[in-house]
Amino acid sequence: MTKFEILPFRLKPVFKNYIWGGEKLINFWNKNSVPPLAESWELAAHPDGDNLILNGDLKGLRLSEAVKKFPEIVSSDFDPHNNIFPLMVKLLDSKNILSVQVHPNDKYAEIYENSLGKTELWYIISHEPDAFIYLGFEHEISKKEFEKAILNNSLTDYLKKIYVNNGDTFLIEPGTIHAIGGGILLAEVQQNSNITYRVYDYGRGRELHIKKALDVVKTTPINYDAKKCDKFKTKILQPENNSINFKNPDSFKFILCLEGECEFTNENINLKLELGENLFIPANSGAFKISGSCNLLMAYV
Fold first, then answer.
1. Exposed/middle/buried for 60, CB within 10 Å: 0-12, 13-18, 19+?
2. Phi, psi of 156 (to 5 degrees)
3. Mind giving me the DSSP string for 226-246?
């Protein structure tokens, strides 16, 4: 155990300037980057993106370093020698449609990628008129038909198109074909993985991963209303009467402010959280009062 109490701390986002990104995270969410800004990795301890701790006793450490040196901030039983930090949380701005893609499960990813698989959840923050996602297949097809549709550029004809509303949540399990349409701003909670098998990219010339996609894809329609997930949990916090009493048990919590502003206070801290800002609450941090008018996404395991 540490010889000092580790208080909640802020993380510096990691920016990804992919071709499908836009300007919303820069112009409205105060992300200090250049367009196109596609993703802001708010919680990440991964070789492709590792947050810097901005305040407190661990200031200056990368998150991956902090969880190795002080595993008790994750949970009382977290073993950094045999486990990796379990979560990522991102903000995504899809000015243009993303590639059609699929992710592997843990077993396949361990064998072929030396990685966790990727289960993810999308929370729709805002969208342009008639914005949509692709999620799963409209009807069951064979893998041979799936491959043929990729090769003749007709894959989207087979996909389930869903028009989105603010506040919608979608759980995307490994093996589910999917794509985020243009004009959507969302928060993504996912396993700590960056494995994507791209199968259709609208002629943008990026690498496709058809063979591995064929290995992992599920070609039957899915129940996209199902929200049960054994990899992580999420909750939306909206303080009633402008305050919430929050007690953190023996696992970390990660908070991302999606709307408004608030303060986290107890006898030791007074931290203000504004739109787009994050807060890592270590395990066993005690009780807090959350005050303000806000919409907070909380992710944990």
1. exposed
2. -65, -20
3. ----SS-EEEEE--BTTEEEE
Q: Which residue has the tokens 């992580």?
A: 232
CA distance 165 to 184: 10
Residues with Cβ < 8 Å from 212, sequence gap 6 or more? 104, 112, 197
Q: What sign results for the dihedral spanned by CA atoms 127, 167, 161, 113? A: positive
The pTM for the full model equals 0.96
SS3 273: strand
| Cβ neighbours for 223, distance < 8 A, ≥ 6 positions apart | none
CB 125, CB 185: distance < 8 Å: yes
Answer whether 282's CB lies under 8 Å from 252's CB: yes
* Catalytic center residues: 198
- Assess whether pLDDT exceeds 60 at residue 2: no
Average pLDDT score over residue span 170-181: 97
